[in-house]
Amino acid sequence: MPNDDAVIEGGSLRLAQERDLTALLEAMEISADLPRVVGEATEIRGIAEDLGRLDVAFWAEVTGLDALARTEGAPGARTRGQEILEWAREQGDARLASRCHALIAMMDLVAGHSGSGAEQATIAVSLLDGSELPRLRAKLLTRQALGLLGAGLLQHGFDVSRRALTLAEQLDDHVLLGQLASNAFHAALDEAMPDEARFWMRRLEAAIAASPDLESELADVLARGHLADTRPWDALDVLERSADDDPVNLQPETRAIRMLLLAQAHHGVGDLPAARSALDRAERITARHALEEVASMILEERAAIAASGADFRLAYELHRQFHQAARSRWIEARRSQVDHLFAEQNVTEALARAEQAEAAVAVDPLTKVRNRRWVEDSLPDVVLTWQSSEPSTGSLALLDLDHFKQVNDRFGHPAGDDVLVAVASCLEACPGVRHVARIGGEEFLLVLRQHADQEQVAQQVLSAVRGLRWPHIHSGLRLTASLGFAACVPGSTSDTLLREADRNLYRAKRAGRDRAVGLW
Protein backbone atom coordinates (compact mmCIF):
# COMPACT_ATOMS: atom_id res chain seq x y z
CA MET A 1 0.00 0.00 0.00
CA PRO A 2 1.11 3.69 -0.08
CA ASN A 3 4.80 4.09 0.66
CA ASP A 4 5.44 6.63 3.42
CA ASP A 5 9.12 6.64 2.46
CA ALA A 6 8.37 8.03 -1.01
CA VAL A 7 10.25 11.12 -2.13
CA ILE A 8 8.12 14.01 -0.88
CA GLU A 9 8.28 17.31 -2.71
CA GLY A 10 7.91 20.35 -0.49
CA GLY A 11 7.67 18.15 2.59
CA SER A 12 4.09 17.20 1.81
CA LEU A 13 3.34 13.60 2.86
CA ARG A 14 -0.26 14.10 1.77
CA LEU A 15 0.73 14.78 -1.84
CA ALA A 16 3.00 11.74 -1.89
CA GLN A 17 0.20 9.54 -0.55
CA GLU A 18 -2.24 10.83 -3.16
CA ARG A 19 0.24 10.10 -5.93
CA ASP A 20 0.75 6.58 -4.58
CA LEU A 21 -3.00 5.93 -4.48
CA THR A 22 -3.44 7.08 -8.06
CA ALA A 23 -0.56 4.91 -9.29
CA LEU A 24 -1.99 1.88 -7.45
CA LEU A 25 -5.45 2.38 -8.91
CA GLU A 26 -4.07 2.71 -12.42
CA ALA A 27 -2.23 -0.59 -11.99
CA MET A 28 -5.29 -2.29 -10.49
CA GLU A 29 -7.51 -1.28 -13.41
CA ILE A 30 -5.50 -3.49 -15.77
CA SER A 31 -4.73 -6.32 -13.34
CA ALA A 32 -5.95 -9.84 -14.12
CA ASP A 33 -5.87 -10.78 -10.41
CA LEU A 34 -9.48 -9.80 -9.77
CA PRO A 35 -9.86 -11.10 -6.17
CA ARG A 36 -6.80 -9.09 -5.16
CA VAL A 37 -8.20 -6.00 -6.91
CA VAL A 38 -11.42 -6.30 -4.91
CA GLY A 39 -9.54 -6.42 -1.61
CA GLU A 40 -7.05 -3.64 -2.37
CA ALA A 41 -9.74 -1.36 -3.79
CA THR A 42 -11.55 -1.47 -0.44
CA GLU A 43 -8.35 -0.58 1.40
CA ILE A 44 -7.51 2.30 -0.97
CA ARG A 45 -11.03 3.63 -0.66
CA GLY A 46 -10.64 3.90 3.11
CA ILE A 47 -7.29 5.69 2.85
CA ALA A 48 -8.64 8.12 0.26
CA GLU A 49 -11.61 8.96 2.47
CA ASP A 50 -9.24 9.67 5.37
CA LEU A 51 -7.31 12.05 3.09
CA GLY A 52 -10.51 13.80 2.08
CA ARG A 53 -10.12 12.70 -1.55
CA LEU A 54 -13.67 11.63 -2.31
CA ASP A 55 -12.91 11.43 -6.05
CA VAL A 56 -10.18 8.84 -5.45
CA ALA A 57 -12.40 6.96 -2.97
CA PHE A 58 -15.15 6.70 -5.60
CA TRP A 59 -12.61 5.67 -8.25
CA ALA A 60 -11.44 2.85 -5.96
CA GLU A 61 -15.03 1.78 -5.29
CA VAL A 62 -15.85 1.60 -9.00
CA THR A 63 -12.65 -0.35 -9.69
CA GLY A 64 -13.54 -2.85 -6.98
CA LEU A 65 -17.12 -3.25 -8.25
CA ASP A 66 -15.88 -3.84 -11.79
CA ALA A 67 -13.58 -6.62 -10.59
CA LEU A 68 -16.22 -8.10 -8.24
CA ALA A 69 -18.81 -8.24 -11.02
CA ARG A 70 -16.41 -10.32 -13.13
CA THR A 71 -15.79 -12.84 -10.35
CA GLU A 72 -18.57 -13.38 -7.80
CA GLY A 73 -21.11 -11.00 -9.33
CA ALA A 74 -22.27 -7.65 -7.98
CA PRO A 75 -26.06 -7.25 -8.37
CA GLY A 76 -26.16 -3.63 -7.20
CA ALA A 77 -23.11 -2.48 -9.16
CA ARG A 78 -25.04 -0.79 -11.96
CA THR A 79 -27.14 1.30 -9.59
CA ARG A 80 -24.10 2.29 -7.55
CA GLY A 81 -22.18 3.12 -10.71
CA GLN A 82 -25.01 5.42 -11.79
CA GLU A 83 -24.99 7.19 -8.40
CA ILE A 84 -21.25 7.82 -8.54
CA LEU A 85 -21.58 8.94 -12.17
CA GLU A 86 -24.00 11.68 -11.13
CA TRP A 87 -21.45 12.94 -8.58
CA ALA A 88 -18.68 12.83 -11.19
CA ARG A 89 -20.77 14.88 -13.60
CA GLU A 90 -21.46 17.51 -10.96
CA GLN A 91 -17.74 17.77 -10.23
CA GLY A 92 -16.68 17.76 -13.89
CA ASP A 93 -14.54 14.69 -13.20
CA ALA A 94 -14.15 13.09 -16.64
CA ARG A 95 -11.77 10.39 -15.38
CA LEU A 96 -14.24 9.08 -12.82
CA ALA A 97 -17.17 9.45 -15.23
CA SER A 98 -15.33 7.29 -17.77
CA ARG A 99 -14.83 4.51 -15.22
CA CYS A 100 -18.50 4.69 -14.17
CA HIS A 101 -19.69 4.37 -17.76
CA ALA A 102 -17.34 1.40 -18.23
CA LEU A 103 -18.78 -0.34 -15.15
CA ILE A 104 -22.36 0.28 -16.29
CA ALA A 105 -21.43 -1.02 -19.75
CA MET A 106 -20.10 -4.26 -18.33
CA MET A 107 -23.19 -4.81 -16.18
CA ASP A 108 -25.42 -4.27 -19.23
CA LEU A 109 -23.36 -6.68 -21.34
CA VAL A 110 -23.50 -9.34 -18.62
CA ALA A 111 -27.28 -8.90 -18.52
CA GLY A 112 -27.49 -9.37 -22.30
CA HIS A 113 -28.32 -5.73 -23.08
CA SER A 114 -25.77 -5.28 -25.87
CA GLY A 115 -27.18 -2.03 -27.20
CA SER A 116 -27.06 -0.25 -23.87
CA GLY A 117 -23.68 -1.80 -23.12
CA ALA A 118 -22.29 -0.50 -26.41
CA GLU A 119 -23.69 2.96 -25.70
CA GLN A 120 -22.15 3.14 -22.24
CA ALA A 121 -18.79 1.75 -23.38
CA THR A 122 -18.67 4.25 -26.25
CA ILE A 123 -19.06 7.13 -23.82
CA ALA A 124 -16.49 5.59 -21.46
CA VAL A 125 -13.88 5.50 -24.23
CA SER A 126 -14.66 9.05 -25.37
CA LEU A 127 -14.07 10.39 -21.86
CA LEU A 128 -10.53 9.02 -21.61
CA ASP A 129 -8.14 11.97 -21.62
CA GLY A 130 -4.96 10.31 -22.90
CA SER A 131 -3.32 10.12 -19.47
CA GLU A 132 -4.62 6.58 -18.84
CA LEU A 133 -2.44 3.49 -19.31
CA PRO A 134 -2.65 2.17 -22.89
CA ARG A 135 -3.75 -1.24 -21.59
CA LEU A 136 -6.82 0.35 -19.97
CA ARG A 137 -7.78 2.05 -23.24
CA ALA A 138 -7.41 -1.31 -25.03
CA LYS A 139 -9.57 -2.98 -22.37
CA LEU A 140 -12.37 -0.42 -22.73
CA LEU A 141 -12.19 -0.56 -26.53
CA THR A 142 -12.61 -4.33 -26.27
CA ARG A 143 -15.69 -3.84 -24.09
CA GLN A 144 -17.08 -1.32 -26.58
CA ALA A 145 -16.47 -3.66 -29.52
CA LEU A 146 -18.21 -6.54 -27.73
CA GLY A 147 -21.30 -4.40 -27.20
CA LEU A 148 -21.37 -3.12 -30.77
CA LEU A 149 -21.00 -6.61 -32.25
CA GLY A 150 -23.64 -7.99 -29.90
CA ALA A 151 -26.03 -5.20 -30.88
CA GLY A 152 -25.57 -6.07 -34.56
CA LEU A 153 -23.66 -2.88 -35.40
CA LEU A 154 -21.04 -4.91 -37.19
CA GLN A 155 -19.06 -2.28 -39.08
CA HIS A 156 -18.70 -0.14 -35.96
CA GLY A 157 -17.83 -3.26 -33.96
CA PHE A 158 -15.12 -4.46 -36.34
CA ASP A 159 -13.66 -0.95 -36.64
CA VAL A 160 -13.36 -0.62 -32.86
CA SER A 161 -11.97 -4.17 -32.65
CA ARG A 162 -9.19 -3.18 -35.04
CA ARG A 163 -8.36 -0.11 -32.95
CA ALA A 164 -8.08 -2.33 -29.90
CA LEU A 165 -6.06 -4.85 -31.91
CA THR A 166 -3.47 -2.21 -32.79
CA LEU A 167 -3.04 -1.34 -29.11
CA ALA A 168 -2.90 -4.99 -28.05
CA GLU A 169 -0.17 -5.68 -30.63
CA GLN A 170 1.82 -2.66 -29.46
CA LEU A 171 1.50 -3.90 -25.87
CA ASP A 172 2.37 -7.47 -26.91
CA ASP A 173 -0.69 -8.56 -24.91
CA HIS A 174 -1.55 -12.01 -26.26
CA VAL A 175 -4.41 -12.58 -23.81
CA LEU A 176 -6.16 -9.43 -24.99
CA LEU A 177 -5.41 -10.34 -28.61
CA GLY A 178 -7.05 -13.71 -28.06
CA GLN A 179 -10.12 -12.18 -26.45
CA LEU A 180 -10.52 -9.62 -29.23
CA ALA A 181 -10.04 -12.13 -32.01
CA SER A 182 -12.45 -14.59 -30.40
CA ASN A 183 -15.28 -12.03 -30.11
CA ALA A 184 -14.81 -10.71 -33.63
CA PHE A 185 -14.41 -14.17 -35.20
CA HIS A 186 -17.69 -15.46 -33.71
CA ALA A 187 -19.54 -12.34 -34.90
CA ALA A 188 -18.10 -12.63 -38.42
CA LEU A 189 -18.91 -16.34 -38.71
CA ASP A 190 -22.45 -15.86 -37.36
CA GLU A 191 -23.05 -13.15 -39.95
CA ALA A 192 -21.57 -15.18 -42.85
CA MET A 193 -18.61 -12.86 -43.37
CA PRO A 194 -15.88 -15.38 -44.32
CA ASP A 195 -13.12 -12.88 -45.15
CA GLU A 196 -13.60 -11.08 -41.83
CA ALA A 197 -13.72 -14.41 -40.00
CA ARG A 198 -10.45 -15.54 -41.62
CA PHE A 199 -8.77 -12.25 -40.67
CA TRP A 200 -9.60 -12.74 -37.00
CA MET A 201 -8.79 -16.46 -37.03
CA ARG A 202 -5.29 -15.62 -38.27
CA ARG A 203 -4.89 -13.15 -35.39
CA LEU A 204 -6.16 -15.78 -32.96
CA GLU A 205 -3.72 -18.41 -34.21
CA ALA A 206 -0.85 -15.89 -33.98
CA ALA A 207 -1.76 -15.10 -30.36
CA ILE A 208 -1.82 -18.82 -29.47
CA ALA A 209 1.48 -19.43 -31.27
CA ALA A 210 3.06 -16.68 -29.17
CA SER A 211 1.41 -17.92 -25.96
CA PRO A 212 0.53 -21.66 -26.22
CA ASP A 213 -1.20 -21.66 -22.80
CA LEU A 214 -4.08 -19.79 -24.44
CA GLU A 215 -5.06 -22.78 -26.57
CA SER A 216 -7.05 -24.48 -23.82
CA GLU A 217 -9.02 -21.32 -23.05
CA LEU A 218 -9.76 -20.68 -26.73
CA ALA A 219 -10.21 -24.30 -27.84
CA ASP A 220 -13.87 -23.85 -28.80
CA VAL A 221 -13.05 -20.86 -31.04
CA LEU A 222 -10.22 -22.72 -32.77
CA ALA A 223 -12.38 -25.81 -33.21
CA ARG A 224 -15.21 -23.80 -34.73
CA GLY A 225 -12.75 -22.23 -37.14
CA HIS A 226 -11.36 -25.61 -38.18
CA LEU A 227 -14.87 -26.99 -38.71
CA ALA A 228 -15.81 -23.96 -40.82
CA ASP A 229 -12.75 -24.73 -42.98
CA THR A 230 -13.83 -28.42 -43.21
CA ARG A 231 -10.87 -29.57 -41.12
CA PRO A 232 -12.61 -31.86 -38.59
CA TRP A 233 -9.40 -33.75 -37.70
CA ASP A 234 -7.76 -30.47 -36.62
CA ALA A 235 -10.87 -29.53 -34.60
CA LEU A 236 -10.85 -32.94 -32.92
CA ASP A 237 -7.16 -32.60 -32.10
CA VAL A 238 -7.65 -29.18 -30.45
CA LEU A 239 -10.68 -30.27 -28.41
CA GLU A 240 -9.05 -33.49 -27.22
CA ARG A 241 -5.87 -31.65 -26.18
CA SER A 242 -7.89 -29.19 -24.14
CA ALA A 243 -10.13 -31.83 -22.52
CA ASP A 244 -7.61 -32.68 -19.80
CA ASP A 245 -6.93 -29.13 -18.68
CA ASP A 246 -10.28 -27.36 -19.00
CA PRO A 247 -10.59 -24.52 -16.47
CA VAL A 248 -12.39 -25.60 -13.32
CA ASN A 249 -14.84 -22.71 -13.51
CA LEU A 250 -15.75 -23.12 -17.18
CA GLN A 251 -19.27 -21.80 -17.73
CA PRO A 252 -22.02 -24.40 -18.43
CA GLU A 253 -22.80 -22.88 -21.85
CA THR A 254 -19.14 -23.09 -22.83
CA ARG A 255 -18.97 -26.74 -21.70
CA ALA A 256 -22.11 -27.57 -23.68
CA ILE A 257 -20.83 -25.85 -26.82
CA ARG A 258 -17.50 -27.66 -26.55
CA MET A 259 -19.35 -30.98 -26.38
CA LEU A 260 -21.41 -29.95 -29.41
CA LEU A 261 -18.25 -29.02 -31.32
CA LEU A 262 -16.68 -32.33 -30.31
CA ALA A 263 -19.74 -34.13 -31.71
CA GLN A 264 -19.45 -32.17 -34.97
CA ALA A 265 -15.76 -33.03 -35.20
CA HIS A 266 -16.43 -36.76 -34.63
CA HIS A 267 -19.23 -36.57 -37.19
CA GLY A 268 -16.86 -34.91 -39.66
CA VAL A 269 -14.34 -37.76 -39.41
CA GLY A 270 -17.08 -40.40 -39.63
CA ASP A 271 -17.14 -41.60 -35.99
CA LEU A 272 -20.92 -41.46 -35.45
CA PRO A 273 -21.05 -43.36 -32.09
CA ALA A 274 -18.54 -40.92 -30.58
CA ALA A 275 -20.54 -38.02 -32.02
CA ARG A 276 -23.77 -39.29 -30.41
CA SER A 277 -21.98 -39.79 -27.09
CA ALA A 278 -20.70 -36.21 -27.12
CA LEU A 279 -24.21 -34.94 -27.94
CA ASP A 280 -25.62 -36.91 -25.00
CA ARG A 281 -23.21 -35.13 -22.67
CA ALA A 282 -24.01 -31.76 -24.22
CA GLU A 283 -27.74 -32.43 -23.86
CA ARG A 284 -27.41 -33.25 -20.15
CA ILE A 285 -25.69 -29.89 -19.58
CA THR A 286 -28.32 -27.94 -21.54
CA ALA A 287 -31.17 -29.66 -19.69
CA ARG A 288 -29.60 -28.96 -16.29
CA HIS A 289 -28.98 -25.28 -17.05
CA ALA A 290 -31.93 -24.49 -19.40
CA LEU A 291 -29.70 -23.57 -22.35
CA GLU A 292 -32.44 -23.49 -24.97
CA GLU A 293 -30.41 -22.10 -27.87
CA VAL A 294 -27.68 -24.71 -27.48
CA ALA A 295 -30.34 -27.41 -27.11
CA SER A 296 -31.76 -26.35 -30.49
CA MET A 297 -28.31 -26.65 -32.10
CA ILE A 298 -27.96 -30.13 -30.60
CA LEU A 299 -31.25 -31.18 -32.27
CA GLU A 300 -29.94 -29.96 -35.62
CA GLU A 301 -26.71 -31.93 -35.23
CA ARG A 302 -28.61 -35.07 -34.15
CA ALA A 303 -30.67 -34.82 -37.32
CA ALA A 304 -27.52 -34.50 -39.43
CA ILE A 305 -25.95 -37.54 -37.73
CA ALA A 306 -29.14 -39.58 -38.24
CA ALA A 307 -29.08 -38.69 -41.93
CA SER A 308 -25.42 -39.71 -42.17
CA GLY A 309 -26.37 -43.05 -40.62
CA ALA A 310 -29.17 -43.50 -43.18
CA ASP A 311 -31.87 -43.26 -40.48
CA PHE A 312 -33.95 -40.82 -42.51
CA ARG A 313 -37.15 -41.22 -40.49
CA LEU A 314 -35.32 -40.19 -37.32
CA ALA A 315 -33.56 -37.41 -39.23
CA TYR A 316 -36.92 -36.06 -40.41
CA GLU A 317 -38.41 -36.16 -36.91
CA LEU A 318 -35.38 -34.42 -35.41
CA HIS A 319 -35.43 -31.78 -38.14
CA ARG A 320 -39.12 -31.15 -37.41
CA GLN A 321 -38.31 -30.67 -33.71
CA PHE A 322 -35.38 -28.42 -34.61
CA HIS A 323 -37.54 -26.20 -36.83
CA GLN A 324 -40.20 -25.94 -34.11
CA ALA A 325 -37.51 -24.76 -31.69
CA ALA A 326 -36.08 -22.46 -34.35
CA ARG A 327 -39.53 -20.97 -34.99
CA SER A 328 -39.95 -20.24 -31.28
CA ARG A 329 -36.61 -18.48 -31.30
CA TRP A 330 -37.61 -16.59 -34.47
CA ILE A 331 -40.79 -15.35 -32.78
CA GLU A 332 -38.75 -14.25 -29.79
CA ALA A 333 -36.29 -12.52 -32.13
CA ARG A 334 -39.17 -10.69 -33.81
CA ARG A 335 -40.36 -9.50 -30.42
CA SER A 336 -36.91 -8.16 -29.66
CA GLN A 337 -36.47 -6.53 -33.08
CA VAL A 338 -37.93 -3.28 -31.80
CA ASP A 339 -35.48 -3.44 -28.88
CA HIS A 340 -32.66 -3.87 -31.41
CA LEU A 341 -33.80 -0.86 -33.43
CA PHE A 342 -33.89 1.21 -30.25
CA ALA A 343 -30.43 -0.13 -29.35
CA GLU A 344 -29.07 0.85 -32.76
CA GLN A 345 -30.57 4.32 -32.44
CA ASN A 346 -29.20 4.72 -28.92
CA VAL A 347 -25.69 3.63 -29.94
CA THR A 348 -25.73 5.95 -32.96
CA GLU A 349 -26.77 8.77 -30.64
CA ALA A 350 -24.04 7.70 -28.21
CA LEU A 351 -21.43 7.95 -30.95
CA ALA A 352 -22.64 11.49 -31.63
CA ARG A 353 -22.61 12.28 -27.92
CA ALA A 354 -19.14 10.79 -27.74
CA GLU A 355 -17.94 13.47 -30.14
CA GLN A 356 -19.50 16.11 -27.88
CA ALA A 357 -17.96 14.44 -24.83
CA GLU A 358 -14.54 14.47 -26.50
CA ALA A 359 -14.89 18.22 -26.95
CA ALA A 360 -15.94 18.59 -23.31
CA VAL A 361 -13.10 16.43 -22.03
CA ALA A 362 -10.62 18.74 -23.79
CA VAL A 363 -11.48 21.40 -21.19
CA ASP A 364 -9.78 21.57 -17.79
CA PRO A 365 -12.61 21.22 -15.23
CA LEU A 366 -11.01 23.63 -12.76
CA THR A 367 -9.88 26.57 -14.88
CA LYS A 368 -12.22 25.99 -17.88
CA VAL A 369 -9.36 26.54 -20.33
CA ARG A 370 -8.16 23.79 -22.65
CA ASN A 371 -6.21 20.84 -21.26
CA ARG A 372 -3.51 18.32 -22.22
CA ARG A 373 -6.00 16.30 -24.28
CA TRP A 374 -6.61 19.36 -26.46
CA VAL A 375 -2.85 19.87 -26.82
CA GLU A 376 -2.37 16.29 -28.01
CA ASP A 377 -5.36 16.29 -30.37
CA SER A 378 -5.44 19.84 -31.76
CA LEU A 379 -2.02 21.48 -31.48
CA PRO A 380 -0.63 19.43 -34.42
CA ASP A 381 -3.37 20.91 -36.63
CA VAL A 382 -2.50 24.43 -35.45
CA VAL A 383 1.15 23.86 -36.36
CA LEU A 384 0.17 22.50 -39.80
CA THR A 385 -1.77 25.73 -40.40
CA TRP A 386 1.32 27.74 -39.46
CA GLN A 387 3.46 25.65 -41.80
CA SER A 388 1.12 26.32 -44.72
CA SER A 389 1.76 30.08 -44.44
CA GLU A 390 4.46 31.81 -46.44
CA PRO A 391 6.67 32.52 -44.64
CA SER A 392 6.04 30.04 -41.83
CA THR A 393 4.81 32.00 -38.82
CA GLY A 394 3.38 31.23 -35.43
CA SER A 395 4.72 30.63 -31.95
CA LEU A 396 3.82 29.26 -28.56
CA ALA A 397 5.07 29.49 -24.98
CA LEU A 398 5.07 27.40 -21.85
CA LEU A 399 4.31 29.28 -18.63
CA ASP A 400 5.01 28.07 -15.12
CA LEU A 401 3.99 29.94 -11.96
CA ASP A 402 7.03 30.64 -9.78
CA HIS A 403 7.07 29.06 -6.29
CA PHE A 404 3.44 27.98 -6.63
CA LYS A 405 3.87 25.08 -4.18
CA GLN A 406 4.33 27.64 -1.43
CA VAL A 407 0.76 28.83 -2.05
CA ASN A 408 -0.62 25.33 -1.53
CA ASP A 409 1.59 24.64 1.48
CA ARG A 410 0.83 27.96 3.20
CA PHE A 411 -2.82 28.59 2.30
CA GLY A 412 -4.13 25.15 1.28
CA HIS A 413 -5.29 23.56 -1.96
CA PRO A 414 -8.60 25.48 -2.24
CA ALA A 415 -6.60 28.72 -2.25
CA GLY A 416 -4.24 27.26 -4.83
CA ASP A 417 -7.24 26.40 -7.02
CA ASP A 418 -8.50 30.00 -6.78
CA VAL A 419 -5.09 31.23 -7.89
CA LEU A 420 -5.03 28.90 -10.90
CA VAL A 421 -8.52 29.98 -11.98
CA ALA A 422 -7.56 33.66 -11.81
CA VAL A 423 -4.30 33.10 -13.69
CA ALA A 424 -6.06 31.17 -16.47
CA SER A 425 -8.60 33.96 -16.84
CA CYS A 426 -5.97 36.69 -17.07
CA LEU A 427 -3.97 34.70 -19.65
CA GLU A 428 -7.03 34.33 -21.87
CA ALA A 429 -7.54 38.10 -21.68
CA CYS A 430 -4.08 38.89 -23.10
CA PRO A 431 -4.60 40.32 -26.64
CA GLY A 432 -1.88 38.35 -28.43
CA VAL A 433 -2.87 34.96 -26.97
CA ARG A 434 -5.20 32.79 -29.07
CA HIS A 435 -5.41 29.59 -26.97
CA VAL A 436 -4.62 28.79 -23.32
CA ALA A 437 -4.28 25.21 -22.09
CA ARG A 438 -3.50 23.94 -18.61
CA ILE A 439 -1.17 21.01 -19.15
CA GLY A 440 -0.47 20.06 -15.55
CA GLY A 441 -0.35 21.60 -12.10
CA GLU A 442 0.65 25.24 -12.43
CA GLU A 443 1.93 24.93 -16.01
CA PHE A 444 0.08 26.46 -18.98
CA LEU A 445 0.56 26.44 -22.73
CA LEU A 446 -0.01 29.71 -24.60
CA VAL A 447 -0.64 29.52 -28.35
CA LEU A 448 -0.06 32.96 -29.80
CA ARG A 449 -2.05 34.52 -32.59
CA GLN A 450 -0.29 33.85 -35.86
CA HIS A 451 1.29 37.28 -36.37
CA ALA A 452 1.52 38.35 -32.71
CA ASP A 453 4.69 40.05 -31.49
CA GLN A 454 6.37 37.66 -29.03
CA GLU A 455 8.07 40.34 -26.96
CA GLN A 456 4.86 42.31 -26.59
CA VAL A 457 2.91 39.21 -25.57
CA ALA A 458 5.62 38.26 -23.05
CA GLN A 459 5.43 41.68 -21.41
CA GLN A 460 1.61 41.55 -21.32
CA VAL A 461 1.59 38.11 -19.73
CA LEU A 462 4.30 38.75 -17.13
CA SER A 463 2.73 42.08 -16.18
CA ALA A 464 -0.77 40.57 -15.94
CA VAL A 465 0.40 37.80 -13.57
CA ARG A 466 2.33 40.28 -11.40
CA GLY A 467 -0.78 42.46 -11.12
CA LEU A 468 -3.11 39.74 -9.81
CA ARG A 469 -4.37 40.11 -6.21
CA TRP A 470 -6.21 37.72 -3.90
CA PRO A 471 -7.39 39.71 -0.83
CA HIS A 472 -9.71 36.86 0.22
CA ILE A 473 -6.63 34.61 0.56
CA HIS A 474 -3.99 37.07 1.84
CA SER A 475 -3.46 40.74 1.17
CA GLY A 476 0.24 40.22 0.59
CA LEU A 477 -0.01 37.30 -1.85
CA ARG A 478 1.91 38.06 -5.05
CA LEU A 479 2.92 35.79 -7.91
CA THR A 480 5.27 35.85 -10.87
CA ALA A 481 5.68 33.54 -13.83
CA SER A 482 8.42 32.20 -16.10
CA LEU A 483 7.97 31.82 -19.86
CA GLY A 484 9.72 29.71 -22.47
CA PHE A 485 8.98 30.57 -26.12
CA ALA A 486 9.32 28.58 -29.34
CA ALA A 487 8.76 29.85 -32.87
CA CYS A 488 7.57 27.79 -35.80
CA VAL A 489 10.12 27.28 -38.59
CA PRO A 490 9.99 25.00 -41.64
CA GLY A 491 9.95 21.41 -40.42
CA SER A 492 8.63 22.25 -36.93
CA THR A 493 6.12 19.90 -35.32
CA SER A 494 4.07 20.28 -32.17
CA ASP A 495 6.50 17.97 -30.37
CA THR A 496 9.63 19.88 -31.40
CA LEU A 497 8.03 23.20 -30.49
CA LEU A 498 6.98 21.95 -27.05
CA ARG A 499 10.45 20.56 -26.38
CA GLU A 500 12.07 23.86 -27.38
CA ALA A 501 9.63 25.84 -25.24
CA ASP A 502 10.30 23.53 -22.30
CA ARG A 503 14.07 24.03 -22.63
CA ASN A 504 13.59 27.81 -22.70
CA LEU A 505 11.27 27.67 -19.70
CA TYR A 506 13.98 25.83 -17.79
CA ARG A 507 16.47 28.53 -18.78
CA ALA A 508 14.09 31.22 -17.56
CA LYS A 509 13.84 29.48 -14.19
CA ARG A 510 17.61 29.10 -13.96
CA ALA A 511 18.09 32.78 -14.86
CA GLY A 512 16.06 33.97 -11.88
CA ARG A 513 12.35 33.51 -12.83
CA ASP A 514 9.81 36.26 -13.67
CA ARG A 515 11.12 36.49 -17.23
CA ALA A 516 10.79 35.11 -20.75
CA VAL A 517 13.43 33.20 -22.74
CA GLY A 518 13.40 32.21 -26.40
CA LEU A 519 12.02 35.44 -27.87
CA TRP A 520 12.71 36.08 -31.55
Can you walk through the features of this model?
- By secondary structure, this protein is of the alpha/beta class.
- It has a domain at 362-517: Alpha-Beta Plaits (2-Layer Sandwich).
- Helix content is 69%, strand content 6%.
- The chain has 23 helices and 6 strands.
- It has a 6-stranded mixed sheet.
- A hairpin with a 2-residue loop joins strand 3 and strand 4.
- It is elongated, with a radius of gyration of 29 Å.
- The model is unreliable at 1-14 and 326-342 (pLDDT under 50).
Produce the secondary structure layout:
Layout: H1 13-29, H2 34-50, H3 54-69, H4 77-91, H5 94-110, H6 114-126, H7 134-150, H8 154-171, H9 174-190, H10 194-210, H11 214-217, H12 219-228, H13 232-243, H14 252-268, H15 272-289, H16 292-308, H17 312-335, H18 337-361, E1 370-371, H19 372-387, E2 395-401, H20 404-411, H21 413-428, E3 433-440, E4 443-448, H22 454-466, E5 481-487, H23 494-510, E6 516-517
Parallel strand pairs: 1-3, 5-6
Antiparallel strand pairs: 2-4, 2-5, 3-4
Helix pairs in contact: 1-2, 1-3, 2-3, 3-4, 3-5, 4-5, 5-6, 5-7, 6-7, 6-18, 7-8, 7-9, 8-9, 9-10, 12-13, 12-14, 13-14, 14-15, 14-16, 15-16, 16-17, 20-21
